[in-house]
Amino acid sequence: MIPILQDIRAWFLLVLALAMVVFICAIAGMGLVLRPVRWADRKRC
Known about the structure:
Blueprint: H1 2-33
Protein backbone atom coordinates (compact mmCIF):
# COMPACT_ATOMS: atom_id res chain seq x y z
CA MET A 1 0.00 0.00 0.00
CA ILE A 2 2.91 2.35 0.63
CA PRO A 3 4.04 2.39 -3.05
CA ILE A 4 0.50 3.41 -4.02
CA LEU A 5 0.69 6.35 -1.64
CA GLN A 6 4.05 7.36 -3.09
CA ASP A 7 2.57 7.23 -6.61
CA ILE A 8 -0.33 9.40 -5.49
CA ARG A 9 2.07 11.88 -3.92
CA ALA A 10 4.23 11.93 -7.06
CA TRP A 11 1.20 12.56 -9.29
CA PHE A 12 0.00 15.29 -6.93
CA LEU A 13 3.37 17.06 -7.03
CA LEU A 14 3.51 16.73 -10.81
CA VAL A 15 0.03 18.19 -11.25
CA LEU A 16 0.86 20.97 -8.78
CA ALA A 17 4.04 21.86 -10.70
CA LEU A 18 2.18 21.87 -14.03
CA ALA A 19 -0.55 24.06 -12.54
CA MET A 20 2.07 26.53 -11.31
CA VAL A 21 3.65 26.68 -14.78
CA VAL A 22 0.26 27.24 -16.43
CA PHE A 23 -0.57 29.93 -13.86
CA ILE A 24 2.73 31.75 -14.46
CA CYS A 25 2.27 31.56 -18.23
CA ALA A 26 -1.28 32.90 -17.91
CA ILE A 27 -0.08 35.86 -15.85
CA ALA A 28 2.70 36.57 -18.36
CA GLY A 29 0.21 36.36 -21.24
CA MET A 30 -2.18 38.77 -19.54
CA GLY A 31 0.74 41.10 -18.89
CA LEU A 32 1.52 41.14 -22.60
CA VAL A 33 -2.09 41.59 -23.69
CA LEU A 34 -3.03 44.13 -21.05
CA ARG A 35 0.24 46.03 -21.21
CA PRO A 36 -0.29 49.41 -19.53
CA VAL A 37 0.42 52.48 -21.58
CA ARG A 38 3.54 54.27 -20.43
CA TRP A 39 3.19 57.89 -19.36
CA ALA A 40 5.53 58.98 -22.16
CA ASP A 41 3.27 57.36 -24.79
CA ARG A 42 -0.01 58.89 -23.61
CA LYS A 43 -1.67 61.60 -25.65
CA ARG A 44 -2.06 64.97 -24.04
CA CYS A 45 -5.58 66.27 -23.72
